[in-house]
Amino acid sequence: MAEAPNANDELYPIAVLIDELKVSWPDTCSCHDDVLLRLNAIHRLSTIALALGAERTRDELIPFLDESVEDEDEVLVALSEELGNFIEYVGGPSWGHVLLSPLENLAAIEEPVVRDKAVESLNKICEELSPQQVEEFFIPLTIRLAKADWFTSKVSGCGLFTAPYKKVSPPVQEQLRQQFGLLVHDETPMVRRQAASNLAKFVKEMPAAIVIDEMIPLFQHLVQDDQDSVRLLTVEILIAVAEGVPKEQQASHGVLLTSLRNLIEDKSWRVRYMIADRFEKIAKAVDEEVVSRDLVPAFVKLLKDNEAEVRTAIAGQIPGFCGLIDRQTLLNDIMSSVEDLVSDTSQHVRAALGTQISGLAPILGKQETIDHLLPMFLQMLKDEFPEVRLHIISKLELLTNLTTVIGIDPLSVSLLPAIVNLAEDKQWRVRLAIIEYIPLLASQLGVKFFDEKLSNLCMGWLGDTVFSIREAATHNLKKLTEVFGVEWASEAIIPKVMTMGNHPNYLYRMTTCFAISTLASVVSIDVIAKSILPMLDKMTEDDIPNIRFNVAKTYSVLINALQRLPEQGTLYTLEQQGTQAAQTTPSPRGQELIQQRIVPNLTKLQKDDDVDVRFYATQAVAEARIHIYSILLYPYSSHGIISSSSSSSSSRPPKAQRRNRLPLDPPKRKGRIVDPAHDAQLAVGVVLEPRPQLGLGPVAARDEEDAAAGAEQLEEASAVGLAGVCGWSRVCACGFGGGEADGVKGALVEDDVEEV
């Protein structure tokens, strides 16, 4: 840690960082107690290490850090994490062992978060060490921590046995197993708990013979522990041991099955909960005889457990476990207990059942599904608690499973009426789930059934009092259009949506705007021209300002759609075509609709009395120009875009020449509109000048003459004000009809101009 060099020295900034790191530790200077300052110093360790080089980092920085482990927990966590990624800064994996000492100290800290991060970093470093380094440096560290007097070190040591196990020789492996056995028998519950937590991972590194001879006795000892916090962790060990021992040998190890039965019948509900929550994994790990003889009765017993938490956990295992047993066993032994859960006293149990019960349909078959599952569905859809109803309908694969098994008719006769009733549920989240379920239901039932039974329901949601429902209803219409096609939408949906635009309640009229914006990608240019634009024409005159500025927003969406729409089809069909869509030419009719039907209304809205309406109308115009057109700059002079070198009025060609050249000059550059750009906000040297014209069409000669008679020009002209140009044009090239358009925000900035 060298003395600070001269300020001109290139290493001076690094020296400053090192000094800041020094004074950041509380035992060095008590006045620097800002945790953020010390955290920043830790996060710059890599910068310091790069500047020092690998050798000085090993010899100076790491020893300094090794002595500086007294600090706030947040700082020590950050230090532990940094050291885990520090191998490249100390010279590579061959020098990785020098990082073990500070991490060993951090692994003995009292705060669990610091210890956990230190153990994580130690294991990460161990993965990059050579077997020789592991045996020489890492194993002694692990043994020291495991044999320490204080439980915090032992707890950390429990997590350091798995990573080095495969890298060391058999004698060292045996030493590790023996030391881990001592931790399993430790007198401190905290140590035994951590040993149980890590034993499952440790077992997976061993062959079956060692698991049977050495690990099963450790598992048996932990299963009999007097602390339920230890016993509940043995469920994962049971699964790991069962997966490690071949299934044909499991029956000969009675201790394993006895321990399983003891856990299933444990007096602590937390242990039974862990068994219930992992029941499917346990069943997959043991052989079929154990499943039929032991696990089926245990499953039924857990379904009837006294604790609601246990019943909730086992309800989540129903389809997975039932898929492992034969259908007759399910019907005879389990199904009656599952049916009892429908009327369980705990709403959480019923809700958990609702999310899983549909998985039984493929297992049971058609007739049993109709006899057993369908009544359960109907009863749960009428449950008094909304969460239960929500869970039973939010499982989207429910419909697919049922229709595949029982067909459409039983579904439409029995289940559909209950679902329709939920469409008006008092809980809006239930209504929302039903809305999201409708497109899938419609695709199964077909157009005719939907029009007869569900069409009015979908339209009714558009007038819901909750905004989230109205918003979801508009997206629902879009999905339905994707399912049934544009022709169906133009006949069944669009007319009803347009009728809402005349509704006396402004929420309905507002929803019309939202629906049009959402449907823009799934309707054709004919639908827009014949149905949508006439309604928006009326809505621009609405008395409510919120309606008018939402009309402006809707116009922006439509312009974007019309600019890309082909003569036939929709944007959705273009997306479905993929690469073929790039070869589709947008319809000229779309540009015509923009110029003749939309732009005049936007111009009118820009003069609205309400400031918000003017703002959104102006924003729609500006955004539309950005997205629709490549805004081309047609220069009046023959030298291209006006710049500081060509901005004086003396550089102009004669008026007659300009009049003749203007419509024919090819575009030299294109630019983008920057919003806002009020002339009062423009920088010094920027001028609103008429010589450049935003050309989207020919400009009449008299307009060019009017522009030439404009304001005096400044020498440093670097921007063209869109408002100024539009104000000087009677038939503006920007697409605005007659009159001034001095409400337009935006400027074409030379810095943002690129060559075409």
Description:
The protein has 756 residues and is mainly α. Among the domains are: 7-129, Leucine-rich Repeat Variant (Alpha Horseshoe), CATH 1.25.10; 485-577 and 585-630, Leucine-rich Repeat Variant. Helices cover 64% and strands 2% of the residues. The protein has 44 helices and seven strands. The chain has a four-stranded antiparallel beta sheet with strand order 4-1-2-7, with no helix packed on it. Helix 18 packs parallel to helix 21. It is flat, with a radius of gyration of 37 Å. The relative contact order is 0.03. Residues 1-8, 24-32 and 627-756 have low confidence and may be disordered. Belongs to the phosphatase 2A regulatory subunit A family. It comes from Trichoderma arundinaceum. GO terms for molecular function: protein phosphatase regulator activity.
Using the 3D structure, state the CATH architecture of the domain at 485-577 and 585-630.
Answer: Alpha Horseshoe
The main sheet comes to:
4 strands, antiparallel
Structural class: mainly alpha
Strand content: under 5%
Assigned CATH superfamily of the domain at 485-577 and 585-630: Leucine-rich Repeat Variant
Distance from N terminus to C terminus (CA atoms, Å) equals 57 Å
Order of strands in the sheet with the most strands? 4-1-2-7
How big is the Rg?
Answer: 37 Å
User: Count of DSSP E strands?
Assistant: 7
Global geometry: flat
Mean pLDDT: 77
Helix content: 55-70%
Number of helices: 44
Q: Which spans have pLDDT < 50 for at least 5 consecutive residues?
A: 1-8, 24-32, 627-756
